Amino acid sequence: MNDTLPIEVTVNGRLRSFDVAVNHTLLEVLRDDLGLTGTKECCVVGECGACTVLVDGTPMNSCLMLAVEVDGSEVMTVEGLGLEGKLDRLQEAFLDEGAAQCGFCIPGQLMSAHALLAQNPHPTVEDVNEALAGNLCRCAGYQQIRAAVLAAVQGGGR
Amino acid sequence: MKAQGGVGAGAHRLGGIGRVTGAQLYVADIPVADALHVKLVTLDCAHARILSIDSAAAEQVPGVVFVMKPEDLPQPIPRFGPQYQDRPVMADGEVKYHGEVVAAVAAETKDAAEEGARLVKVEYEALPAIFTLEAALAPGAELVQDPSIRRPGPLTGTNVLSEYHFGWGDVDAVADEADIIVEHTYDWASQTQFAIEPHGCIAAPDSDGIIVWSSIQHPYQLQKTLAKVLGMPMSKVRVFAPDPGGAFGGKQHPKLEPLVAFMALRADRPVRLILTLEEAFQAVRSAGARMTVRTGINSDGTLVFQDFVDDFLVGAYGDTGDRISAKASFLSAGPYRTPAVRITSRAVLSHTTPCHPMRGFGIPQVTWARESNLDEAALAAGVDRLEIRLKNLVKYGEEHVPGDTPADGDWAQTVRKAASEIGWGTPLPKGQGRGIAIGVKSGPTTGLSYSTVRFLGDGSVLVFSGTSDMGQGARTIYAQIAAEELGVPLAHVSVVMGDTSVVPYDQQTSASRSSVLMGNAVLNACRDIQRKLRARVAEMEGIDEKSITLDRGVMRLPDREEPIPAVLKKVLGPMGGEVVGNGEARKDALPEHPLGGTALFFEFNCTAVDVAVDTETGETTILRHVTVGDVGLALNPVQVTGQDEGAAVMGVGLSLMEHLIWDGEGRTRNLGAIDYRIPTSKDLPLELVSFSVENADGPGPYGVKGISEGSLLCTAPAVAAAVRDACGAVIRDLPLSPERVWRAIQEQS
């Protein structure tokens, strides 16, 4: 149970080499080993999306991946959004639209939205609903979240 | 406009930046050095006698520090609870619901704690469980609670925790006058709050006291409970309450915090327990209910009487089950002018998770029954379903419950707006249907909130408020009030919350009270500052205080008007310093009132929907969903919309999807996100629109009322009525799952 393996992974643009327990998920390693607690834990069965991160640009439930699986990959978490202390266009739009209520699901929503816009710069309402369908929000601010994603597209120059 | 702004501005959420950057620290994110991890031991059983607990193997796991067993607690095991002090810190000889804690492992790592928990061997004798109203109320039913822990009285030897009788007029005497009487029984399933942040707490010994971090809505209740259970003065119990990651009522009162506190004291080091979602489901749920309603009307739709029997299935311990059943049932008859009303309400114990408040506090349950039955009466009389509501709706200032607060809004305005926005009375295509329903909920019946506001030397402001900001945006509202009153930019206001040693007392964050009660406390604290400044200015200028008037952000002297921040600078002078104000807001108890107090305000909502039903599959699609709330005044319209739409979507989930499923032995079968579905972005109404009626007639600052529950109060009856209108399916138990709708369609054809 305490076997470890060394991994090399780029986290939010920073290359890191360290040992991880082979039985630990990416979520556990991000939160407990790296202290990146922006990624949230809720259902740990891949249903709620609170733990969504980007692995080589693809949104993944980090609770369903073993940390050893990301050896050699690039991982981006909510802490990696925005540059030099400035919010990115999605983060700004989430604030403008009041999309973050309790906020617990928001890191996951942002990562899914980030991946959507990277793949599809001009999504429709249906595209947004589909891309974020794996991110539960019990405050149910879905309409504000959707509006924020669409507003981020319009304000793309920011 | 959004970046600044006092009252009425759609200002950015305070705390918003932390929420979009991941910097916001929820309880599980708080680094506490040297903390042990706790894993709970539970049984796959709803009711059992514990014969022995063997922790030897668990204690051999490297990293396990100790296993906490009931015998390690003070004896008799301390009990606590918001209304009844009947919940033991850990299962006391018997497990009384699926998931009740029998032991807890403390270890250096999460892995070791989990491994240890798997190895704790519990010998037990499984006992039959009671998990339905029928079984609990059957003559000779086994008692869920030993009479020794019950309050003495006529109910002690039954499974009825509490029973209330409300009403006015004489139902039996007027029943003959009714042209039409319709009677049916309606069921509301037990559901779960499902905050995306599972509950968590951390406890750390602190010299001769203790510090506890918890994702709790009521930090001051937790402080009081811990002080009592641990035998410490309240001043030695410091509760940090970081913003909950959603609560929806489920995080109001203490549950596992006392256990974690005892474990920290035993370990003499910090101890942390973060629940899994499955454990959170077992820690808290809402009250299921069965309501039998008899409505009598005249042929023109005028109400003659309403008669209710409301039974709520509460859990193994009292928790808030009594209060939910009483407060909700009290308003069973809704906002109508009814000559005679009879209400019997019972909270019924069972071997299930103790029921806890959930957004709406029982009102969605009684509203489902009343509004559905009213529709059935209207259909029987051939009266339009909107007309029957408007005809019987009380007018502004008229009592709907004699002796309670009268209608505090122009409620017909709200109903008419909803009807107009849904196009009531206009034709619909085949296969579509329309429903309309009204919800009304009492705000708090008592309340006490204090705030301290510090006006700092540079004109910036610190507001201290004991509210929990769990997504409703209380922090932003208080900052907007302070910005308005003290005439400073919103960006210069910070709000300090969540520390019972620093922030003054607040009774609760519940019942949509905070904008009104704490809002008034903040307002009063700011006005205390204004008055202190006025006294000093009068002294400095040698003029009469009465010649100076105060307004929002400005001071008016006989010869000039000055912004408050400029006044502050002059008053403080070269030495600097600050001006501190204190504010209080209270709603006093009325012992003679059946609920211990009148409603401070009402949340009033009208919801109207258009639906389409697929008769092949029974699937319901909400095409247009209109919610209109009487909010008094929208202090922050963006947040009002967020709360209103959010509650509406939650209401859709409660109506169409959500129910806890107990198996034949009372174990919860759908623990967690795979089997308990809540709405996703793909389950939204195709159109969802929220409107506010604003007449500035509420008791809060500038006329606000509470708003955060309104739009889920009557979602279910509106949707069910629309389903019936669309396809004729009559459904009286929730949720309106496709299977249920499909079966109802088959039955009527």
Description:
The complex is a heterodimer of chains A (158) and B (749). Chain A has 158 residues and is α+β, with helices and mostly antiparallel strands. Chain A has two domains: 4-79, Ubiquitin-like (UB roll) (Roll); 89-154, Orthogonal Bundle (DNA polymerase, domain 1), CATH 1.10.150.120. Helices cover 32% and strands 17% of the residues of chain A. Chain A has helices at residues 26-33, 89-96, 106-119, 125-131, 142-154, and strands spanning 4-11, 14-21, 52-55, 58-61, 74-76. In chain A, a hairpin with a 2-residue loop joins strand 1 (4-11) and strand 2 (14-21). The longest helix of chain A is centred in the last third of the chain and has 14 residues, at 106-119. Chain B is α+β, with helices and mostly antiparallel strands. Chain B folds into three domains: 16-24 and 447-587, Aldehyde oxidase/xanthine dehydrogenase, molybdopterin binding domain (Aldehyde Oxidoreductase, domain 4), CATH 3.30.365; 32-127 and 199-274, Aldehyde oxidase/xanthine dehydrogenase, a/b hammerhead (Aldehyde Oxidoreductase, domain 3), CATH 3.90.1170; 288-444 and 593-748, Aldehyde oxidase/xanthine dehydrogenase, molybdopterin binding domain (Aldehyde Oxidoreductase, domain 4, 2-Layer Sandwich). In chain B, the strands form seven sheets. Chain B has a seven-stranded mixed sheet. A five-stranded mixed sheet of chain B has the order 9-17-16-15-10. In chain B, strand 22 and strand 23 (554-556) form a beta hairpin. The relative contact order of chain B is 0.12. At the A-B interface, helix 1, helix 2, helix 3, helix 4 and helix 5 of A face helix 1, helix 3 and helix 16 of B.
Task: State the main characteristics.
heterodimer; A: alpha+beta; Ubiquitin-like (UB roll); 5 helices; globular; B: 749 residues; alpha+beta; Aldehyde Oxidoreductase, domain 4; Aldehyde Oxidoreductase, domain 3; 3 domains; seven-stranded mixed sheet; 18 helices
